[in-house]
Amino acid sequence: MAPNNPNPPSTSFWNVNVPPSEHTETCPGFLTYAIDTNPRDRAILSTPDSDYIRQSWPQVQQLVRENRPDLFQRVPSDLRLYKEYCAKLVEEHGSVMRFVVEERLGWGGGKVDGEVKGGLEDPANYKILQNDWPYGIDSRIVHLVVWTKFTLLSDPATEDLTPEAHAEIERFVDETFVAKCGREKVVWFRNWTSLKSIQAVEHFHVMLFDPDAEFVRQVTGGDVALAEKVKKGDGWGG
């Protein structure tokens, strides 16, 4: 049962950034988590897009340097759309993870090997795609995700990568992105385990400031983020 709404529908957080004709008396099921367990997301969803300030490239660099991926956030309307879309994926595919592995990555079977040979030196072991639901950052920043078929080892006590895993990713990022874009225009990070939206498939994030569009097309194979497709009405079919 949807929670009781003590506020008029127009002021309820789930109606912010929604046309008045689509306002509802009760909270949609895909947003009830923000009432029960996530006040941070509730605050974001309560913010009009017109009041949202995108994080700048220097701010992004600082958050990565300080290992604070928890301070990234999405544009309010994008967060709402993301949660709605994830709920639809669970309904149609059983889980977001299954959709990512089978549909986005094309790795089949809903499983990814934990141990493979070659690591990031073998292109068969990873895939670079657009972040389907990028953060609310400067629109000149391109947000990519590198998905891997193998586990990137981390210290369970700190959730940080082991020195060996960190060095492997650093080498890969230098060769793949820094060599083309310049060191001051590239950052990378892996989310803490507790922050990962897709827990079962290993991945790390790469952000590029104002990169050459053709280079991005080449490294992603011309991939288009799901958010962009959904906003155009093309991505709701999963």
Automatic annotation (TrEMBL):
Gene Ontology process terms (BP): N-acetylglucosamine metabolic process
Pfam families associated with the record: DUF3605 (PF12239)
Gene Ontology CC entries for this record: cytoplasm
InterPro entries documented for this protein: DUF3605
Taxonomic superkingdom: Eukaryota
Protein name as annotated: N-acetylglucosamine-induced protein 1
Organism for this UniProt entry: Friedmanniomyces endolithicus
